[in-house]
Design goal:
With 256 residues, the chain is an alpha/beta fold. The chain has one domain: Metallo-beta-lactamase, Chain A. It has seven helices and 14 strands. A seven-stranded mixed β-sheet has the order 6-5-4-3-2-1-14. Helix 7 links the parallel strand 12 and strand 13. The longest helix has 10 residues. The protein is globular. The structure holds zinc ion (ZN) (2 copies). The site of one zinc ion has 4 residues, from loops.
Length: 256
């Protein structure tokens, strides 16, 4: 799998974009950043969006992405997530008031620009060419992480979460097929109180999660860093030994 980082931050500053990852050029994981860091032809190849939860830093770019793909003459784009997340997007974001409901607007190919695909929790489902399992994690609203796989290659994407159990347990079941984990580490250790109240991880609490993979040693990527603490988070991350950990950067592509 090729993962392109459109944005990997939990806040915005010049050059620091909100969370959005492109998988093999065809599936988006979260929609905090799309058009700001992706050209038109690249956007037009996207067929599916997995949305972990409804918070704006994961959804705000989806309405503008819709405008850029109306001229597609292809199938529409499916937005996949839990019933809770999809209801929030329908009722509070693309609700025909804040922004048009693009499930009622057709593209140049005569297909609706967006459709919603409700994912059952904790079950493997087919999304495009991928097997996907949405697993609830531990955030301020319902959020699901995802296990995503194709062939013998699987990744875990944590979504926004503090300490949690189920997704790590499901990831562990994948054994050697688990090639990489992507995990939310938002605050430095000294802001642990903020991480606790907003339900995110710090390097110290993140380190306590990795052992839940048992002896598995997939590649480890961290994202959702709050831009104002980047230096401190990087320094704290150096204390974690025994894993190959990459702190993600906007615009970079990672081969899994
Ligand atoms: Zn969130
Ligand atoms: Zn977030």
């Amino acid at each position: 799998m090729i993962i392109k980082t459109l944005g990997c931050h939990g806040g915005q500053l010049p050059g620091r974009n909100l969370t959005g990852f492109l998988v093999n050029g065809e599936m988006l994981i979260d929609g905090g950043t799309v058009a700001m860091n992706s050209g038109l032809s690249e956007q037009r190849r996207i067929r599916n969006i997995l949305v972990s939860h409804a918070h704006l830093d994961h959804t705000n770019a989806i309405p503008f992405f819709a405008v850029n793909i109306v001229s597609n003459k292809t199938e529409g784009v499916s937005i996949a997530g839990s019933a809770y997340t999809l209801d929030a997007i329908k009722n509070h974001l693309m609700n025909d008031i804040i922004w048009p409901d693009f499930t009622k607007i057709k593209n140049f190919g005569g297909k609706y620009v967006f459709s919603y695909k409700q994912l059952k929790l904790n079950k493997w489902e087919k999304v495009g060419a991928y097997r996907v399992m949405a697993v609830p994690v531990n955030h301020t609203i319902q959020c699901t992480g995802f296990l995503i796989g194709k062939g013998n290659s699987y990744i875990m994407y944590s979504g926004d979460t503090k300490e949690t159990e189920a997704i790590w347990a499901e990831a562990k079941k994948l054994g050697k097929k688990l090639k990489a984990v992507f995990v939310d580490v938002a605050f430095p250790d000294r802001a642990g109180f903020l991480a606790e109240s907003s339900c995110h991880l710090t390097p110290a609490s993140f380190a306590g999660q990795l052992h839940k993979l048992g002896g598995l040693k997939p590649k480890v990527f961290v994202y959702h860093l709050k831009p104002e603490y980047l230096k401190e988070i990087r320094a704290d991350m150096k204390k974690i030994k025994g894993y190959k950990i990459t702190i993600m950067e906007d615009g970079k592509t990672y081969k899994i």
